[in-house]
Amino acid sequence: MVAVRGGSTTPRRLPGVEGVWVFVAADMSFFALLFVSFMLGRQDAVEVYEASRQTLDVNFGGINTLILLTSSWLVVLAVEAVKRNELKNVPHLIAGAFLLGAAFKVSKALEYGGKIKAGITMLSNDFYMYYFTLTGIHLLHVFGGNILLIVLWNKARARQFTKDNCVVLECGATYWHMVDLLWIVLFPLLYLLR
Amino acid sequence: MNTAMTRHITTMVWLFLMAATIATTWWLSKDGFSPIVGTVAIFAIAAFKVRLVLLHFMELKHAPLPWRLIFEAWVLLATAAIVGIYLSTTPVAVA
């Protein structure tokens, strides 16, 4: 299959390897089931869910979204730079993406800390059970992504990525964008849906 | 498509995603909007944001069509399920 763009013919291709996309699709399906499960739980106890939701700080959720979107964007810029064979800035872009991932974790730690200090845990009610479980599983993905970004940063510094050899970078990028994408849904689901 | 243009599009997409996030977090979620209008608008915007990430950041725009459709279907189904269950839930009585 080919797509014609600007007079040149670009073959359609999936970035990275197919296996990563299968994993991403499976992981996203798992999250989609959790979203539905949360919504069905809410249906049975809407007052409790709404009262609990109001105790969440939307500033944390919103800022965390901005952090992940920017981190994702830096990774896109890194992939694009490699494809232009402009390798000089690639490690900086990946380092920036990593630091933003770390900022997300710090912000989450502060948020969890505040909740626990206020005596709120997973066991407080069903809403908080979902809140801690969903954000916790997502946070594990952020941890995984940050480790991946360190690996990519090292490879970029060693100039291992080139225009013709960037499959590993593309795989890491695909995973990291998924982490961003899941948060784009999780945030309104837990913090904004009223 | 030349490379300068690709870069330009990526940055425009990022700016749009940031603006949409700011609008949903600090404007649409406020009491000036009824819960239903605010919530449905927030999820419509979230779905659009997810689609932008899939097509532009994850490059599904240039992927073989079946792959693109699988992920576009995820956006559609996840959003429809969330909004559908939301709309069929009896809202909290306003005090």
Overall description:
- The complex is a heterodimer of chains A (194) and B (95).
- Chain A has helices at 18-44, 46-53, 58-83, 90-117, 126-157, 167-192; strands at residues 2-5, 8-11.
- Chain A has 194 residues and is mainly alpha-helical.
- Chain A has a single domain (18-192), classed as Four Helix Bundle (Hemerythrin (Met), subunit A) (Up-down Bundle), CATH 1.20.120.
- A two-stranded antiparallel ribbon of chain A has the order 1-2.
- In chain A, helix 1 crosses helix 2, helix 1 packs parallel to helix 6 and helix 3 runs antiparallel to helix 4.
- Chain B has one domain.
- Chain B is built from 3 helices and no strands.
- The chains are: A mainly alpha (194), B mainly alpha (95).
- At the A-B interface, helix 1, helix 2, helix 3 and helix 6 of A face helix 1, helix 2 and helix 3 of B.
Break the fold down into its secondary structure elements and pairings:
The complex is a heterodimer of chains A (194) and B (95).
Chain A: E1 2-5, E2 8-11, H1 18-44, H2 46-53, H3 58-83, H4 90-117, H5 126-157, H6 167-192
Antiparallel strand pairs in A: 1-2
Chain B: H1 3-28, H2 35-57, H3 65-87
Helix pairs in contact in B: 1-2, 2-3
Integer count of domains of chain B: 1
Describe the sheet with the most strands of chain B.
none
> From the structure provided, what is the oligomeric state, counting identical versus distinct chains?
heterodimer
Query: What is the overall silhouette of chain B?
Result: flat
What are the secondary-structure elements of chain A, in order, as H or E?
EEHHHHHH
Q: Which sequence of strands runs across the widest sheet of chain A?
A: 1-2
- The helix fraction of chain A, in percent, is over 70%
Calculate Rg of chain A over CA atoms. 19 Å
Spans of chain A with pLDDT under 50 lasting ≥5 residues?
none
- Residues in β-strands, percent of chain A: under 5%
Largest sheet of chain A: 2 strands, antiparallel
Averaged pLDDT of chain B, please? 92
Helix/strand-derived category of chain A reads mainly alpha
Mean pLDDT of chain A: 95
**The CATH top-level class label of chain A:** Mainly Alpha
